[in-house]
Amino acid sequence: MIERVGYHQYRLSAHLWLSSIFVFAYACCLLVGLGSCSPKDKTESVRVDPRPNIFLITTDSVRSDFLGCYGNHWIKTPNMDQISRKGHTFTAMYNQSPYTVPALASIMTSLYPQQHNARNVLLEQKNTATATISSEIVDLPLQEKVKTWAAFMKERGYTTIASVGGFTVTSAFSGLNSGFMYYDQATDQLFRSGEILIDGIERQLAAQKNQPLFCWLHFFDTHFPYQVEGPCSLLYQDSRYVSILPKDCQYDRTRIQNITNEQNPVTAVNQTIARYAASISWIDTQIAQVQRRLIRQLSPKRNFMIVTSDHGEGLIEHFEFFDHGLQLYNTTTRVPCLFSFGQQVEPHNSQVINHVCRHVDLWPTLDDYLGYSRAQDDRTGRSMKPILDGTGVFSEPVLLEGKVVQAKVPETRNEAIVSDPWKLMITHSENEVRESLYDLNDDPGELLDLAGKQSQVIKELKQSLNTLKQLKSEIDDSDVMLTSQDEDTKDKLRSLGYLGD
Ligand SMILES: [Zn+2]
Fold first, then answer.
1. 437 pLDDT exceeds 80?
2. How far is the centre of ligand 1, averaged over its atoms, from the C-alpha of 97 (Å)?
3. Residue 223 C-alpha to ligand 1 middle, in angstroms?
């Protein structure tokens, strides 16, 4: 019925339809959730370990400014908004790379990309037969010898389970399965919907006995090309919501031609942004399902839940056209992060945390709350508990790295350092290396480059950046194992926007 409604008709009654669609979508989610609650009593009755369950939910490519709890007024995210109201909202959480595998690996290892080495690298290979050197950009998976959060929790008696939605997060491509006893994935698909991910975890919960859970879900629905279906897909198509494309902006339509047939460039971009927004509202309903179908089956009183994103998404700002990875602006590096502590875990009171924080700090923070010893700790992250408890300060600079820029030139990787309130970016282009400096307090959009006026600040930031770059790798070159990508794999990556043609 909805599909028969013409575009103009839809525009005339946008408010009514949006409301109806949301009621319908949430009613559907509620019915699915209610229908799957039968194991509840049985699961609770045998669970005897008092330690809290850990739920880590990562959403791919979600910008914080597209969430209601971060001030967005037109995108509906009621579930994440509620988590924010009851829990803790980090307004300046940074990833360590705006690229999926290195970003997630930094969460899972509490190490920077140059330390865990699950990153995008330029490899030079010598062909002895022809006496030539060829270079290729490849994505390295996380190696088993690097200790992960999941492996650590498994050693402490936790059942470690994960379910991931994207091809790039599969075990062979990413190595992110390290430490998980059960890793639900689909190697023959580019993408799996969030609903299927929750199904996979729910099946595992039914087999649980009395061990606490460390559970990770990586939702991929919000990754380009923003695959959202059903009622949510019609949200926000009224173009009055978004209009950020300058009139004289030139862009390559190729990237969005499978999303919209619209020929007017402004409308085409707005429709693509609308679909991205719709995918975020859809994922919000799936987070409600995690709470309803998974967390409440266990014990609502004993759960830590973290909701964050691996990176954001450039929506034509800063020369990023529905993409992420190369540039290091806040659009892709400052990410949403919400903590929910459950009823029996301190601290209860809701807070907004404005300190600059890092993804590498998540694991040490949770360890701190769980009371696990940090003796001989070789992780880079630090516990954020002092700022959550109000008992101390937290001031750690953030190192950021992008993908390799050009295959022909070694060491062409964009990098940046964030040290409140400054961000220094070092950006490579074909013929130059450029430094730019932004005051993030006064200029959160990073539009006014102050590099020409703050030489002393730049000098100090470069010293900090070079110190952080000295952090040693956990991996020797001899440990690096490459699996060459076959044509099928390359096709899959290409369709997700990972490889250039
Ligand atoms: Zn990603």
1. yes
2. 10
3. 7
